[in-house]
Amino acid sequence: xxxxxxxxxxxxxxxxxxxxxxxxxxxxxxxxxxxxxxxxxxxxxxxxxxxxxxxxxxxxxxxxxxxxxxxxxxxxxxxxxxxxxxxxxxxxxxxxxxxxxxxxxxxxxxxxxxxxxxxxxxxxxxxxxxxxxxxxxxxxxxxxxxxxxxxxxxxxxxxxxxxxxxxxxxxxxxxxxxxxxxxxxxxxxxxxxxxxxxxxxxxxxxxxxxxxxxxxxxxxxxxxxxxxxxxxxxxxxxxxxxxxxxxxxxxxxxxxxxxxxxxxxxxxxxxxxxxxxxxxxxxxxxxxxxxxxxxxxxxxxxxxxxxxxxxxxxxxxxxxxxxxxxxxxxxxxxxxxxxxxxxxxxxxxxxxxxxxxxxxxxxxxxxxxxxxxxxxxxxxxxxxxxxxxxxx
Length: 392
Description:
Low-confidence stretches: 388-392
Mean pLDDT: 91
Strand content: 15-25%
CATH class of the largest domain: Alpha Beta
Helix content: 25-40%
Number of helices: 13
Radius of gyration: 21 Å
Largest sheet: 7 strands, parallel
CATH architecture of the largest domain: 3-Layer(aba) Sandwich
CATH topology of the largest domain: Rossmann fold
CATH superfamily of the largest domain: Glycogen Phosphorylase B
């Protein structure tokens, strides 16, 4: 355990059972903090029909919205939770969003004189298409203004990649910013033959895997077009898409229209404790999104030793060294296809990428992430001297 035990309040609009990179990161952080003897309470949105097993989870009243039905929106009044909040005499607040519940965390931190750390998880200006009632230019302007206002009122900002740190700096955030990549859990690796037997897949298949939300900002059209280019040379190639989202039917139609409908399998939502089968059964991981602050699934794929091919331009490539532990391409189906083909056709190159990917994963474990976050807490509280360099 680092320093004295702390009493920490985490505020987030997004938390389990919502499944995304933010909720997974928060869950891992909470577990790690508790293992080190710290007390953690989570303040988050209500989720219809969900019952928490954790007595330290506090949910605000929330309702689904027509824009994002899987993400209930918390509604005021919030002050009804104040007696519960005050009863715990928190040492520090850690917010994970600058919006509704994150703003509640900011206000309560200011009104109670509690130090505030925040994590910048998401490039929010890349998601304006989910609010169709306003022009995108107006929304991007408002997001930029709010970003500047919110993150300059906290004591310390954590962000998972150099890319997102630079984005904040361009928006004149003048608070200390520390880069701490989100850690990934230890993989549950199965022999490839066993995993494929469980998933009823033939061993002579070449399996390219994508895991994540199925949404237009994930750039999946480039990925599916790339696979369509590769099929003539690799008739045994299959693309597995694990996850769900609002654009699922759009991409199912695209695969069918490209004549590869029987080569692409949409597995849908998979529980976290089952995801290891899919990583274990795959031969390579393909990722085309340019809207990530980190791209947690890249680190997950690396933990299984999968060679990764990804489109550059976002935070997903922050831990990838091109040609060493993965391949980075432009947002082009031709380049993505050529890079993936190089891995398929050269087993020695694929094996080298795999070994380097495993080395990279060991540098980004959950334990290392939690230790670095605790160090930021201690800096903010004046318990330790600041590090001379930011964590990569």
